[in-house]
Amino acid sequence: MSFENNEDRRPNTKPLHFLLVPLLAQGHMIPMVDLARLLAARGNLVTFATTPINLARIQPIVERAAAAAASTLQIRFIELSFCVADAGLPDGCENIDLLPSMDLLFPFLNSLHLLREPLEAHLQAPDPFQWPRPACLISDNIQNWTIDFARALDIPRLIFQGPSCFFLLCDLLINRHVVELEAAMAAASGGPVILPGLTRPIRISKHELMLTLRSDPGWFKFIETMKELEDTSEGILINSFVELESWYIERYHEEIGKPIWPVGPLSLYNKEEDAKAVRGRVSSIDNKFLLQWMDGKEPGSLASGALHTIRWSRLWRLATG
């Protein structure tokens, strides 16, 4: 496991070519663009692959990266055709938040393999810049087609995880101990119980177990797909940093037995205020109202709900981007 965060650009070494394939969701693509800039800033070559609609949606970020690339960074953004009609999806549904109904979520996730053929065609086409073949593929843990794709290229495949390591560890333990947790919660008359596997006690409630979604066969398949992607990867990149959650990073490393590289917080790579302003969609909640709401709460009351997002689990994290 490496926690090194070296700012050197390795000018005397041969540049590596990283191929980034993010999930088609805003909350995944935006930090992956930041990751692309971070890799390129260290003298590497980066290809960022997505679809036309998604590239248009992050155009302000792409333009900033392209401006930097003109002087120092070497990043290419490529468009992959995504025939959503072949997956039975409405026209234009190239992003999770563009789906008209969450009933289409699993069909959408199961259609992501359609990106493989156009990506292969791009890599096989003559390259006017004569970049070397990719030396490493980085994707989300949803793109299951990248397993065979990376094997065909004979290159390592890394997974990029956007949430905190606290979330990742708790999510892993909840899925591993779900039967035990359900029994303990029944014995406690539905009250909160301690999550096993942590030396620091974390209590979870019935909401965190996501009983309804776990009864869906599609949910089981979804969990198994993510597990396979993680099990067959060479390591994990997380959008966090050691000083924030060193204990959880160590425990997560012990649980998955793979190298972990904390590369975050990637949002801080955008040091200019106007650069941060163009990231993602405009919030539907006024910042002043939000701060006033937080100021009106009892001290410590917001921290007590730190595990609240676990109840949406990975599925709703994907849906909301």
Automatic annotation (TrEMBL):
Any one Gene Ontology MF annotation carried by this entry is: UDP-glucosyltransferase activity
For this chain, the family text in UniProt reads: Belongs to the UDP-glycosyltransferase family.
Q: What is this protein called?
A: Uncharacterized protein
